[in-house]
Design goal:
The protein is mostly helical and about 250 residues long. It is built from 12 helices and no strands. The longest helix is centred in the last third of the chain and has 29 residues.
Length: about 250
């Protein structure tokens, strides 16, 4: 079982991550895995992520009334993003923890810089199918290795020009599907134990409480200002992971 300090860190992390998700509609995997990896190894952080991430994203995926349209339009992307998670988890078993931490840091830095820079890619509708399949495969592998589907998954959803409410629901569907696949792959690889499952389930309540609080905060704070602070924080966290991984690799 986990010690009391670890339990407090996990609960506090998901409370904060849920609040971020409540304000801007995403960020729970990035915040939770990023912060927990400071105190825990990446595999444990990913295992603890699965239940809160699945529950909150399932909630997000059913709100909006556009699920059928999203699934009909994006099924090649969603299928590839889901089935390739197993490839990423297989790599997770073989790669150095320092390299994986650096990869997580690079993804956080990339995601933050793209978002802060207001960089919007555009993918024409005629190329959406094959590009979505390719990006979905890359996104699934990276999800299996780092626990987050934001890069390049969310970037693809933004690039095809989905309206805001449809985009948020599509992100929920993507995250719910890939998190379910991640849970199955981690369990198969013996990274997800009964103790992980218990603590991960206990983290659902603070994650939901954080989401509700975040939705309330959204009414009183400019969303763009919050997004700027959020992405700066992710940028700093990602840079820390990269610097620490380089330090560890150089010391060997």
């Amino acid at each position: 079982m986990f010690d009391l300090t670890t339990v407090i860190v996990v609960i506090g992390t998901f409370l904060l991550a849920g609040a971020v998700k409540g304000v801007i509609g995403l960020g729970l995997p990035q915040v939770s895995v990023g912060l927990m990896t400071v105190a825990l190894d990446l595999q444990t952080a990913m295992a603890l992520l699965v239940v809160p991430a699945f529950v909150t994203n399932l909630w997000q995926s059913v709100v909006g009334g556009s699920a059928k349209v999203i699934l009909r339009r994006l099924w090649p992307f969603l299928v590839m993003a889901t089935v390739t998670v197993w490839i990423g988890v297989a790599a997770l078993q073989r790669l150095s923890p320092s390299l994986l931490a650096a990869l997580l840091g690079a993804m956080l830095v990339t995601y933050s810089l793209v978002s802060l820079g207001g960089i919007w890619l555009t993918i024409p509708a005629r190329h959406e199918g094959w590009v979505g399949s390719l990006i979905g495969a890359v996104s699934g592998v990276l999800t299996g290795m780092t626990g987050t589907a934001a890069v390049p998954g969310v970037m693809f959803l933004q690039a095809i020009g989905l309206p805001r409410d449809v985009l948020i629901q599509a992100m929920g569907i993507l995250f719910a599907a890939t998190t379910l696949a991640l849970a199955a792959a981690l369990q198969q690889a013996n990274f997800l134990t009964v103790d992980h499952g218990i603590l991960s389930s206990a983290a659902v309540l603070p994650a939901i409480a954080g989401m509700i609080a975040g939705q309330w905060i959204r009414k009183g704070i400019a969303e763009q200002r919050f997004r700027t602070v959020f992405f700066i924080g992710l940028l700093v966290l990602g840079a820390y992971f990269i610097a620490n991984a380089i330090r560890v690799l150089r010391s060997r």
